[in-house]
Write the structure tokens for this entry.
Amino acid sequence: MRAGKVAIVTSNLSKVYELGDEKIEVLKAVNLKVENGEFVVISGPSGSGKTTLLNIISSIDKPTSGMVNVLGNDLNVQNEDFLASFRCNNIGFVFQSYNLVSTLTVTENITFPMEWLRKPESEIKNRVEKLLEIVGLSSRGDHFPFQLSGGEQQRVAFARALANDPPLLLVDEPTGNLDVKTSLKIIQLLQNLKAEGKTIIVVSHDERIIQLADQKLCLEDGKLATLNE
């Protein structure tokens, strides 16, 4: 599902959380434009609103004010049924905490998004096998998340995010908790996905990932700016 050259546009995007009488402005008039096939990296201090921005782009969360258009759709005017279907078909999200379902095997975790779209069983089986091969976990399909290392869980999270071959991939701190060897596997995976032409937004402080970026941005105190080299 593509709409012209532009994949994502936000205009004066703001997000305010209310904690009792206190209002916390997490995002402040954020303007972002991402073209189809671009690789964008957003860095910035902890608590600066990076994950909140990803959540809004993915339609998991809604802005307090401002516009967000993703793949030709104004997300502010869509109902929850549309947004759930839109996410499953068009957006892969790799969460910082992986968010794997602990009671499901690796194969079942990857299968779930495809089952939600009622894809044929044979298509699902072939896709899972291909994804496990891509992330280097072909022998781990019957394992549960607790039986995997952090790096392996991260790669399962990538496989699940890619299950329905979405045009847009959002990735939150993919190497933040990984050792150097495992981080290199994740970076290689991102390089391959970039080469395939996916539109990718990664929240990361990893210089090796930042160097892959077409756009290098920094979010600090809720405001988005181009990252100085």
Notes: The domain at 6-103+168-226 is CATH 3.40.50.300 (Rossmann fold).
